[in-house]
Amino acid sequence: MSALPNPLREGLAAERIPEPATMVIFGASGDLTKRKLLPALYSLTRERLLPGRFAVIGYARKQLTDDAFRGEMRAGCEEFARRRPVDAELWDGFARNIFYQEGGYDDPNAFIALRERLEQIEKQLGLPGNRVFYLSIPPSSFATVVRNLGVSGLVPPPSAGPQAHFSRVIIEKPFGTDLATAQKLNRDIHETLTENQIYRIDHYLGKETVQNLLVFRFANGIFEPVWNNRYVDHVQITGAETVGVEGRGGYFEQAGILRDMVQNHLFQVVSLAAMEPPVAFDADGVRDEKLKVLKALHPIPSSEIDAHVVRAQYAAGSIAGRAVPGYREEPGVSPTSQTETYVALKFFIDSWRWMGVPFFLRSAKRMPKRATEIAIHFKEAPRLLFGRRGEGIRPNVLSIRIQPDEGISLNFGSKLPGPVMEVAPVTMEFRYGSSFGVEPPEAYERLILDCLLGDGTLFTRADEVEASWTWISRIHQHWQEKAAAQTAAGTVEPLPSYPAGSWGPEAGDRLIGDGGRQWRRP
Ligand code: NDP
Ligand code: BG6
Which residues line ligand 2 (CB under 6 A)? Predict the structure, then answer.
């Protein structure tokens, strides 16, 4: 890469350094801690974005010494950190402030022991008492751990009022499995924490390209005027993965792609793409506008759910020339599973801006290509002017590639070179990699840093999560009722399937094709 300064990057690295703090990670013996959290903290240290005084305490039931935990985390960073190999000198300094505390999740005494250890570490390192608790544990333990944070005095009660030092809690996904469980979890954690202490993670919001949706829309004068039902024909959102369930069959069986990807990640993308300009770029300004979109999702009547929501399961097939098993053959998956690994939806947003514009969203495992993108399909221009020579005219499509090959492209018609007036589609491209010459940081780096800085803009608020579940849970409820009726009648219909490595079932193509449209090939 060129050593010359890149003018496009100037001013982009405005550093914001948080106050000295300690991060306690619950479930520190798990996969997420070593694959994402410690590598993110290590990268932040490398980029000098963490405060000079900063400590990490890993907490879990597994028996480990501080040194053994440091060793496991170093191995995690060697394997998963963004910049490898790990810098030995930097690591030694960073690892000196990593500790491990063994304990259970439902035992208040273990939390009291944690508080004593934390206070001792804070004293030893001269840390002021700012604390972030990261819940990297199965969701069934979220409420218990938050309650014990309060009971043990690790977090002061909400009635104690403003504090000199912050206590914040990061909560992993999934946040509930339906509307009722999400509401209950919100009620439970609000007994110990105020909403502004809660940081619900959706790692899609930490992706640079997702954040760029806001910049693209609101920092440019030319797009916003056409970003509405007068000019937009329809919107397509794709979340395609080549991976299957990757050893998480047990979890996925209970979730399905609608819960795993759509309710959270892709609805966050939809809300950023469809929202009105916020009054300010702060946590509540942005989240208020996203909430309005989620609340304006037009509820699909139960009688129309089957026509608007297509689901299917991958069968055996091949990905990049490699044979892969079907979903029902995956470990932890029932051979008669009815869990969807593909979903395609057609929905509307009841707002002045989007009235009448269909949104088509699809998300699936085992697609031929990994691609997350949002594509705005504009209305077609009249062809009359060009007659037969205008056959090459296509509607303009603006596509925002969230990953991989992050970038934005605009398709438009151009005159074919030559003596006649013929039109052909061409593409104008922006690519992050080549323009900025840097790889985007990992989503967890940005999100952990924002939490330390007390910036909740890229975290989901209680009302957003509930609004999203309100819409999604109606679909699950319809599926459950249908399954119960079929079981009672003894006529259980298997889900439609699609071969692994294909773009999904024909029913998904029909869903969009009924209006003469078709899915974009990302
Ligand atoms: P794990 O299943 O590996 O659990 C993390 C740790 O939690 C375990 O090592 C275990 O430690 C402890 N634990 C507490 N209660 C239980 C329980 N009932 N069953 C099993 N373990 C328990 O989770 P991950 O590390 O993969 O993920 C952590 C959180 O992040 C989860 O909420 C997950 O949904 C979410 N997440 C994970 C992603 C990933 O890529 N891994 C991606 C997106 C979200 P011990 O027994 O030592 O106490
Ligand atoms: C996780 C889902 O939240 O997001 C996984 O549980 C999915 O099933 C993953 O594979 C996708 O994340 P990314 O960043 O790879 O698009």
Answer: 173, 241, 260, 372
Cα-to-centroid distance, 247 and ligand 2 (Å): 13
Dist CA 478 CA 490 (whole Å): 18
Pocket test for ligand 2, best of 35, 205, 241, 339 (most atoms within 8 A of CB): 241
Q: Which two tokens stand for residue 379?
A: 């209305």
Of all protein residues, the one whose alpha carbon is nearest to atom 5 of ligand 2 is 260
Clarify whether 265 is annotated catalytic: yes
Long-range contacts of 478-481 (CB under 8 A, 24+ apart): 478/302, 478/305, 478/306, 479/311, 481/302
Distance (Å, whole) CA 99 – CA 130: 17
Predicted TM-score (pTM) of the model is: 0.93
Tens of pLDDT, residue by residue over 202-215, are: 999 999 889 889 99
Which secondary structure element, helix H or strand E, spans residue 376, and what is its range?
strand 371-378
What atom in ligand 2 is closest to the CA of residue 243?
10
Instruction: Return the exposure string of 413-424: e unless at least 16 CB atoms fall within 10 Å of the residue's CB, then b.
Output: beeeeeeeebbe
- Angle of helix 179-190 relative to helix 462-489, nearest 10 degrees, comes to 140
User: What whole-number distance in Å separates Cα of residue 111 and Cα of residue 429?
Assistant: 53
Phi first, then psi: give them for residue 313, nearest 5 degrees. -130, 145
Element containing residue 256 per DSSP (H, E) = helix 249-257
pLDDT digits (tens, 9 = 90+) for 98-129: 999 999 999 999 999 999 999 999 999 999 99
372-to-286, 363, 438, 493, 520 alpha-carbon distances in Å: 22, 9, 20, 31, 12
